[in-house]
Amino acid sequence: MNYSSIFSSIYSQIDHLSNRGELATYIPELGNVSPNKFGVSLLSISGEEYSFGDFDERFSIQSIAKVLALVLAYASENEKLWKRVGVEPSGTAFNSLVQLEYDMGIPRNPFINAGAIVISDILISQLKNPKADFIAFVRSLSGNNSIDYCERIAKSEKNSGYRNAALVNLMKSFGNIENEVNVVLDFYFNLCSIQMSCSELTQTFLFLANKGINPNNNERILSLSKTKRVNAVMQLCGFYDEAGEFSFKVGLPGKSGVGGGIIAILPNQYCIGVWSPKLNRKGNSYKGMKFLELFTTKTETSIF
Ligand code: GLN
Question: Mean pLDDT, the chain, as a whole number?
Fold first, then answer.
């Protein structure tokens, strides 16, 4: 399929839309990004790559990194991981505190902030040098040693991350955080600060479309069963309280971040990454979602 011409024709359609939404200025550094950036990249499991626009420019992947944290923790923690975090859609905002008290400090899923903070705590207990080991894992997935945390963004979030501090403290009070709260927050803010381009994102996440095997070097990252489960959690929880809307309109498992990025996966076929920094009210990329909706409609692809 000629995805390049599909990309440009869809872009010309959404370019006419007023670029609604807002930058994620609650993390001050994310407010400095140029709002009209737009990039998209698709990588097929057979290695064909199609890209458009600002696909080569790095941005803050934010919550997209939560998937990589889950993958690394799940690979060694196995099913006991699910005692500390659930697999249910939250139906609430990514940074919400409300359910956490009712649920006795067990987050609904690993992709809301509370869940990713628990996964961060698990990784800190598992890894010898948590930050270094984690970025080494991301680099090996992407095949790119220059991928890194962004100190500026991590610091900016640390200085304004009061809600995440509230979440980790609440969970600690329920006994669902083992390590010191500041250590957990530092890991979590660094995790969210990782920068990648659309094309690097597709390299990194392609194994989830390929039964858990990195097609670049044939290395198994996750078992087939765990891969299906991670994709299932993305399908149900990857877009917070807009997961239903994304399933309904796009029909693929995926994950968004407040940097305006989205990755989505069509199992056994491709991984697609899109970036447009302005977010809708649910914290998902406004144009990114529109683009993917038109893309899966035009290419008649869906997991359903
Ligand atoms: N670092 C962001 C936060 O904790 C991640 C949120 C997101 O991308 N949805 O608020």
Answer: 96
* DSSP result, 152-185: HHHHHHHTT-HHHHHHHHHHHHTT---S-HHHHH
Q: What number is the average pLDDT over the span 52-69?
A: 98
**Measuring CA to CA, how many Å separate 254 from each of 1, 77, 103, 181, 267?**
22, 23, 25, 29, 11
Work out which ligand 1 atom sits closest to the CA atom of 116. Answer: 4
Regarding the beta carbon of 54 and ligand 1, being less than 6 Å apart is answered no
d(CA 64, CA 231): 13
Task: Answer yes or no: is the C-beta of 258 below 6 A from any ligand 1 atom.
Answer: yes
Q: What is the pLDDT of residues 2-11, one digit of tens each?
A: 899 999 999 9
Ligand 1, atom 10, lies closest to the CA of: 95
Domain 3-297 has CATH 3.40.710.10: yes
Every domain of the chain and the residues it spans: 3-297
Q: Whose CA is nearest to atom 4 of ligand 1?
A: 113
- Determine what percent of the chain is predicted with pLDDT higher than 90: 95
- Rounded Cα gap, residues 260 and 264, in angstroms: 13
User: Among the atoms of ligand 1, which is closest to the Cα of residue 257?
Assistant: 8
The reply to whether ligand 1 has any atom less than 6 angstroms from the CB of 257 is yes
Q: What is the pTM of this model?
A: 0.97
Give yes or no for residue 242 CB within 6 A of ligand 1.
no
* pLDDT over 80 (residue 19): no
pLDDT tens column, 136-193: 999 999 999 999 999 999 999 999 999 999 999 999 999 999 999 999 999 999 999 9
CB-neighbour burial class of residue 223 (10 A; exposed 0-12, middle 13-18, buried 19+) = middle
Beta-carbon contacts of 102 under 8 Å, excluding residues fewer than 6 positions away, are none
